[in-house]
Structure formats: structure tokens, C-alpha cells
């Protein structure tokens, strides 16, 4: 039994918002890897949210240029999120194996460039390589929207299917090394956490998000490789033969693809994966101390813009916002004032 398409629309929209909320303070801290993770995940959520709205109940080829862009982003996402996880694990390993807590501006600039080459360069290469085994421009599935198309042939495993698994294996190596250093050099690790922009909590949360993504990528990627290897293979003849029908746009009704288990599994897994990543990321980073600090700053700024007065009680890091209108304060019930103070302190 299928679920309402609006359910996915709601969750994907929330997922894109979840990716946007922590972006500012991660960018401020030069966390390029996590910023790339949020960009790709949020882009995937927002794009599929739009697709689920535009193609809800129809399969009309209404926006060819947008469909081309959307399918290229889908191809990039095949390796983009694993590549971002690799950037995070690699960065955590570099931090754990550092001999000094001093991080120069040149070190930060070099780290940013390396993360961009991995987090943006690999997905771009994925887009280029996928075109080699692409049989037609795109396919429009009712309720899903446009999707890319691959020919099931031997080169497809090396040009498309193997990328997430290979990236996940490299990420696994860095993750294991980081965990080993973390548990064998506790004292040195504690000193490293004194560096600006670093904390034990943030470090562990980064390990968690990268580890979860890696543990999901390798098994799922391996399963898809095994599954596709059992399908009838088409032999590579020539470039012209593979792309002879490239301009064709296939349109698949919902009652056809939703009655095919392989299609349902592939399409639903693909579009729900970024949503799951977004919710897991926000669960780890959206409720941290640094997150609440920025929430309070934003709330205080918004309150002041709306004509409210803000103040912070001594001995508390929480801001209290009250309206300063005399009619609201003069003759107020003392119990109400005590309640306001209590809310400020808790």
C-alpha cells in the first residue's frame, strides 16, 4: 500500500530547512566538510520536494531544462554525500593525528581546498562519467518526477555503481584510524580540543554523522551492485549505439512503477536517503549547546526588531524577552512576574 505523496513533500521540505539552520555557524567555524554535507543533502531534499509537487499525479514533460538539471544533481548525489562523509572522516583523522593545537590560516585554507576538491570534484566527475552509460535524456515517473537512466552493462559498474562503495571503504579506513587514536591518545586528544572551533562534543557528533552515513553507504551500495549484476547485461558496442536513443524522454505512470518492487525500492530509497541524512544531521547538531546559543541570539535579534526589550539575568546564560509596555507591568500579578523569572532561569 503506497503512502500519500504529500507525506514525502512535507518531510523533504522539513529536511531542507534542517540543513539550512546549522549552516551559518558551521561556515563561521570553517567546517567545510559539514557545510558541503548540508549543501548536498539540503539540495537533494529541496529538489525532490519540488519534483513531488510538480509531478504529483502527472508525468508531463513540462520543464525539460529543469529536468536536465535535476537529473544531473541526482547523479551527483550518488557520490556527493559519501564524498562529504569522507571529507569529515579525513578531517577528523587529521585533527586526531595532529602534534600541535596551533592551526594557522594557511592550514585552514589548505583544508578548505582539499575538502572542496573531494566534496565538489568527485560529484562533478560522477556526472561526466555517468553520461557515458546514459541511454536516454531522462525518465519521468508519475509522483516522482524526472530521473536519470543508465544502461545495464559492465562499464556502468565502474563508472557509476562502484563510486559510493569505493568512497565508503576509504572513509571506513579513516574512521577506524580515528577511533584507534581517540582511545589510545586520550590526553593528547584533550589538548587538541582546546583549539578554536573544536570541542569534544562537536568532534564526537561529527564522528557519529560520518559513521552512520558510511555504515549505510557500503551495505546499500554493495546490495545494489549485486542486484544489478543479476539483471540481463547489454554489451558495449559503441558510443553511437549506446546513445542512439538519447533524445527520447520516457514517461512512466505510477500504477506501472509502483507495481514493480525493484522500481519502488530504487526510487523510494533514492529520494528518502537525503531526507534521512537531514534528520539525522539535525538530531546531532540542531540540539547542541552551540545551536541553542545561536537560537537565543536570533531570537533576541528578532525580538529587538519587533520592539521588544531583551535582558539576561546574572548567573544565567539564557536571555529573557519581555514587553516593556507600562500597562503590562504596572499592577501585574506577582505570581505572573515570578513565572516570567522562572522561565528565564530554566
From TrEMBL:
One of its GO terms (cellular component) is plasma membrane. InterPro entries: GPCR_Pheromne_B_alpha_rcpt, GPCR_STE3. It comes from Russula ochroleuca. Keywords: G-protein coupled receptor, Membrane, Pheromone response, Receptor, Transducer, Transmembrane, Transmembrane helix. It is a multi-pass membrane protein. Its main location: membrane. The chain crosses the membrane at residues 7-25, 37-55, 116-133, 153-183, 203-226, 269-288. The keyword Amino-acid biosynthesis does not apply. GO terms for biological process: pheromone-dependent signal transduction involved in conjugation with cellular fusion. This is STE3-like pheromone receptor. It comes from the Eukaryota. Belongs to the G-protein coupled receptor 4 family. One of its GO terms (molecular function) is mating-type alpha-factor pheromone receptor activity.
Amino acid at each position: 500500500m503506497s503512502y500519500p505523496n504529500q507525506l514525502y513533500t512535507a518531510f523533504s521540505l522539513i529536511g531542507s530547512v534542517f540543513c539550512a539552520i546549522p549552516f551559518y555557524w558551521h561556515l563561521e567555524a570553517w567546517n567545510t566538510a559539514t557545510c558541503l554535507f548540508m549543501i548536498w543533502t539540503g539540495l537533494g531534499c529541496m529538489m525532490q520536494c519540488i519534483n513531488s509537487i510538480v509531478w504529483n499525479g502527472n508525468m508531463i514533460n513540462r520543464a525539460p531544462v529543469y529536468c536536465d538539471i535535476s537529473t544531473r544533481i541526482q547523479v551527483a548525489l550518488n557520490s556527493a554525500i559519501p564524498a562529504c562523509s569522507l571529507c569529515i572522516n579525513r578531517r577528523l583523522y587529521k585533527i586526531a593525528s595532529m602534534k600541535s593545537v596551533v592551526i594557522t590560516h594557511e592550514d585552514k585554507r589548505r583544508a578548505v581546498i582539499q575538502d572542496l576538491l573531494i566534496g565538489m570534484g568527485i560529484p562533478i566527475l560522477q556526472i561526466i562519467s555517468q553520461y557515458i552509460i546514459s541511454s536516454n535524456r531522462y525518465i519521468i515517473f508519475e509522483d516522482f518526477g524526472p530521473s536519470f537512466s543508465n544502461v545495464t552493462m559492465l562499464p556502468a559498474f565502474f563508472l557509476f555503481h562502484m563510486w559510493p562503495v569505493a568512497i565508503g571503504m576509504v572513509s571506513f579506513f579513516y574512521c577506524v584510524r580515528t577511533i584507534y587514536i581517540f582511545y589510545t591518545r586520550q590526553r593528547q586528544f584533550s589538548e587538541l580540543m582546546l583549539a578554536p572551533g573544536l570541542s569534544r562534543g562537536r568532534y564526537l557528533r561529527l564522528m557519529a554523522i560520518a559513521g552512520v552515513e558510511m555504515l549505510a553507504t557500503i551495505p546499500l551500495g554493495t546490495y545494489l551492485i549485486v542486484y544489478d549484476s543479476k539483471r540481463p547485461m547489454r554489451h558495449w558496442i559503441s558510443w553511437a549505439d549506446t546513445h542512439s536513443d538519447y533524445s527520447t524522454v520516457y514517461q512512466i505512470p505510477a500504477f506501472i512503477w509502483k507495481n514493480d518492487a525493484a522500481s519502488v525500492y530504487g526510487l523510494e530509497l533514492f529520494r528518502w536517503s537525503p531526507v534521512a541524512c537531514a534528520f539525522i544531521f539535525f538530531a546531532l547538531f540542531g540540539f547542541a549547546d552551540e545551536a541553542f546559543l545561536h537560537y537565543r541570539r536570533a531570537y533576541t535579534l528578532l525580538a529587538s526588531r519587533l520592539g521588544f526589550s531583551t535582558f539576561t539575568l546574572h548567573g544565567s546564560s539564557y536571555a529573557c524577552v519581555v514587553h516593556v509596555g507600562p500597562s503590562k507591568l504596572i499592577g501585574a500579578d506577582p505570581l505572573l512576574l515570578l513565572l516570567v523569572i522562572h522561565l528565564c532561569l530554566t
